[in-house]
C-alpha cells in the first residue's frame, strides 16, 4: 500500500504495517514537550488523573521560554511549580531560563529525530517536521494523558505537498515563500493536513529555512509541517544525537496525497498585514507604512542566518529615531555564535536593544508590548489583534531582511 510520510510515521508509532488518512490510531509518543506557560496546566491535569509517576521521564522535555526571566509574580510561581514537578518526576531534559525558545532548543539538543512522533503544548511544535518527524501541538489535557500513558490518539491526516520550484531572488527567503503560500490558500486552506514541503527550492534551503516553512504550517490550518530527510538533515543531526533513526518518504502515488505547485522565481519580499496571517501583500504595496517597533527574533526567524541577514543590512547604519528595535536570538547557542561573529556589536552600535533568548513580544505577555495605536513589524508568525499587546495596536509580519531595512528607514521598506 502506498502511503505518505505522515501515514508511515503514524503507522510505525501505532505498531501497524500500514494506515490511511481518516483512520484513528493510538500512537506511542517519542518526545513530549511543555514549557513555562502551558506546563502548569498540563501538570495540574496530570495530577487529577491520580498517576504518581510519568510514563517515561527521559522522553519528556521541559523548557522555560515564554516569560523568562519571570516578568510577574504569577510567572515566578509557575516557574517554581514546574521546577518542583521536574525534580519530583526526575526529568533530566529540563532547560531553565537560560537556553531559549523550545522549538529551537529541542533540535539543537538532539531531541528531534526523523521518523518519530513529537508532541508539544505549543501550536508551533510543527517546526520539528523540518527534520523528517511528525510533530504537532496538542492541548494541556492531552499532554496530561501523554504524561500518564505515553500514548495519544490521532486521526491520520491527508497530505498536501507544496512542490516549490524556482531560484529565490535577492533578499527573498523561506519566510517570504511561506507567507506567499498562506496568502494563496488562506488561513484554513490546509486544515488538519500534513503540509509537506518539497521541490528543488526546498532542497536548496538550509535546515533553518526549512524550519521557518514548517513553523508556519499551523497558520494555514495544518496539523504538521514536514520535509523529507536528506544529506543536509543528516549533517545537522551529526554531533547533536547518536540515536539511530528511520527515514520515511512519501510515495508519489499515495491516495491521500495532493500537490500544489509553487513557482517562486519572481517572488518579491512578502508582508502579512493586520490582523490575519493570510492577509499577505508584496512589500511594495505596503512600503512607507510608519512603524513604532521592529522585532527580530522568535521561533520563526530568530536563528543565526536571520541575524546575519539583518546585521549585513544594518552594519554602519542607525535605527530610526522613530523606532525601537528588539533583537532576540532564539537560543543561547545562537546568541553565542552571534557574539563570536560580531553580529551583536552591529546591532548594539546601530541602536537596537539586544535581549536574552526567549519568546519576547511574540505572545504579547512579556517584553516589548505594544501600546494603543502602535505599529510593529515582526519576524514572528502571528499578527492577530492583541497578539503583541494592545488590541488597538497593529502587527505586520516579514522576513529578517525586511525587518532590518524597515528599522533603519522608520517605515516598512524593501530591502532590495
Structural class: alpha/beta
How can the largest sheet be summarized?
5 strands, parallel
Low-confidence stretches: none
**End-to-end separation:** 48 Å
Q: How many E strands?
A: 18
CATH superfamily of the largest domain: Aconitase, domain 3
Which CATH architecture of the largest domain would you pick? 2-Layer Sandwich
- β-sheet strand percentage: 15-25%
In one word, what is the shape? Answer: globular
Mean pLDDT: 94
What count of structural domains?
Answer: 2
Strand order of the largest sheet: 4-3-2-5-6
Return Rg in Å: 20 Å
**Roughly how much helix do the residues carry, as a percent range?**
25-40%
Count, helices: 15
Instruction: Tell me the CATH topology of the largest domain.
Output: Aconitase, domain 3
Pfam family, one: Aconitase
Organism: Methanobacterium formicicum
Family: Belongs to the aconitase/IPM isomerase family. LeuC type 2 subfamily.
GO biological process, one term: L-leucine biosynthetic process
Pick out its properties.
2 domains; globular; Aconitase, domain 3; 18 strands; 416 residues; 5-stranded parallel beta sheet; alpha/beta
List the helices and strands and how they pair.
Blueprint lengths: L4 H9 L10 E5 L2 E5 L3 H11 L10 E4 L9 H17 L4 E2 L6 H7 L8 E4 L13 E4 L2 H10 L1 E5 L2 E8 L8 H12 L7 E6 H6 L2 H9 L8 E3 L4 H7 L19 E7 L6 E3 L7 E3 H4 L6 E5 H4 L2 H11 L9 E5 L3 H9 L2 H8 L2 E2 L20 E4 L15 E4 L2 H10 L7
Parallel strand pairs: 2-3, 2-5, 3-4, 5-6, 8-9, 8-11, 9-10, 14-15, 14-17, 15-16, 17-18
Antiparallel strand pairs: 1-7, 12-13
Amino acid at each position: 500500500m502506498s502511503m505518505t510520510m505522515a501515514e508511515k510515521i503514524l503507522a510505525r508509532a501505532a505498531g501497524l504495517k500500514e494506515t490511511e488518512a481518516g483512520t484513528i490510531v493510538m500512537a506511542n509518543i517519542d518526545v513530549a514537550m511543555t514549557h513555562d506557560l502551558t506546563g502548569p496546566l498540563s501538570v495540574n491535569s496530570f495530577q487529577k488523573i491520580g498517576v504518581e509517576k510519568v510514563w517515561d521521564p527521559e522522553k519528556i522535555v521541559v523548557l522555560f521560554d515564554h516569560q523568562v526571566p519571570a516578568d510577574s509574580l504569577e510567572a515566578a510561581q509557575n516557574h517554581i511549580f514546574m521546577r518542583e514537578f521536574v525534580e519530583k518526576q526526575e526529568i533530566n531534559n529540563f532547560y531553565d531560563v537560560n537556553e531559549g525558545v523550545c522549538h529551537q532548543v529541542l533540535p539543537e539538543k538532539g531531541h528531534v529525530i526523523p521518523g518519530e512522533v513529537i508532541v508539544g503544548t505549543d501550536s508551533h511544535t510543527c517546526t520539528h517536521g523540518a527534520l523528517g518527524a511528525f510533530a504537532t501541538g496538542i492541548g494541556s489535557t492531552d499532554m496530561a494523558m501523554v504524561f500518564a500513558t505515553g500514548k495519544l490518539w490521532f486521526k491520520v491526516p491527508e497530505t498536501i505537498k507544496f512542490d516549490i520550484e524556482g531560484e529565490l531572488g535577492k533578499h527573498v527567503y523561506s519566510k517570504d515563500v511561506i507567507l506567499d503560500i498562506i496568502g494563496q490558500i488562506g488561513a484554513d486552506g490546509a486544515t488538519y493536513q500534513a503540509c509537506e514541503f518539497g521541490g528543488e527550492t526546498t532542497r536548496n534551503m538550509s535546515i533553518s529555512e526549512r524550519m521557518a516553512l514548517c513553523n508556519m504550517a499551523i497558520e494555514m490550518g495544518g496539523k504538521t509541517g514536514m520535509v523529507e530527510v536528506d544529506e543536509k538533515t543528516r549533517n545537522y543531526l551529526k554531533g547533536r544525537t547518536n540515536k539511530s533513526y528511520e527515514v520515511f518518504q512519501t510515495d508519489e502515488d499515495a491516495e491521500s496525497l495532493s500537490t500544489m505547485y509553487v513557482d517562486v522565481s519572481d517572488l518579491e519580499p512578502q508582508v502579512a498585514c493586520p490582523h490575519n496571517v493570510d492577509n499577505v501583500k508584496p512589500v511594495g504595496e505596503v512600503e512607507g507604512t510608519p512603524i513604532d517597533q521592529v522585532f527580530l527574533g522568535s521561533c520563526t526567524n530568530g536563528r543565526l542566518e536571520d541575524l546575519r541577514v539583518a546585521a549585513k543590512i544594518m552594519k554602519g547604519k542607525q535605527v530610526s529615531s522613530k523606532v525601537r528595535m528588539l533583537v532576540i536570538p532564539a537560543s543561547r547557542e545562537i546568541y553565542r555564535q552571534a557574539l563570536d561573529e560580531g553580529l551583536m556589536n552591529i546591532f548594539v552600535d546601530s541602536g537596537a536593544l539586544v535581549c536574552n533568548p526567549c519568546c519576547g513580544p511574540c505572545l504579547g505577555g512579556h517584553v516589548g508590548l505594544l501600546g494603543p495605536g502602535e505599529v510593529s513589524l515582526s519576524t514572528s508568525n502571528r499578527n492577530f489583534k492583541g497578539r503583541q499587546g494592545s488590541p488597538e495596536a497593529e502587527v505586520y509580519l516579514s522576513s529578517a531582511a525586511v525587518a532590518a531595512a524597515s528599522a533603519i528607514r522608520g517605515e516598512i521598506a524593501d530591502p532590495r
